[in-house]
Amino acid sequence: MGLSTVALRRGLTARELELNQPAAPEIYRDMLPVTQSDASLALNGDGPVVDWVLRMWRFPAEYELERVAERGALDDRLATAFGEASADYHAAAPVCSAQATVSLRIFWRSWAVSLRSSSVQREPPGSRNGPVPPIFAGRDAGCLTHKR
Fold first, then answer.
1. Which pLDDT value is given to residue 109?
2. In degrees, to the nearest 5, what angle opens at C-alpha 138 toward C-alphas 13 and 93?
3. What CA–CA distances, in Å, run from 51 to 31, 57, 128, 146?
4. pTM here?
């Protein structure tokens, strides 16, 4: 993922907004330029654009899945509902192949099972403890980040 230029970061920010706003419009509001004038930075100011940010609603931390799990409220019913809602959201998105949809459903269900069966896991499988499992065929991996 190339983030070395303002244009690349703008494109990535716009893509994140495009992907997430339909499912959570109350959270993903819009994107704003970070501008620079003299020695200060401003949101949506008059100077040249030096970066881009998403403007999002900050929801209460107790709604975060990690906090729900910490207080013991992530039961089988909620974990299953979360996994199915996530899989349904991704299944409704443009898909490169049926196998990619099935793989994604398996990935999130296995993550929900790991949350229920161990202490709180902060990241999906493989994100910090090694590579992400090879659940997508080579050409399908691009479907997750590139519009076709």
1. 72
2. 50
3. 11, 20, 27, 21
4. 0.56
pLDDT, tens digit, for every residue of 73-130?
999 999 898 889 888 887 777 656 666 666 667 776 776 666 666 554 445 444 444 4
Q: What is the C-alpha separation between 44 and 33, in angstroms, rounded? A: 5
Residue of 112, 57, 56 whose CA lies nearest to 84: 112
Work out whether strand 49-56 and strand 28-37 pair parallel, antiparallel, or are unpaired.
antiparallel
* Two structure tokens written together for 1: 């993922």
Q: Which amino acid is at 99?
A: Q
Helix residue ranges, H only, the chain:
6-20, 65-70, 76-92, 98-117, 138-141
Distances 65 to 12, 17, 56, 57, 99 between C-alpha atoms, Å: 25, 21, 18, 17, 27
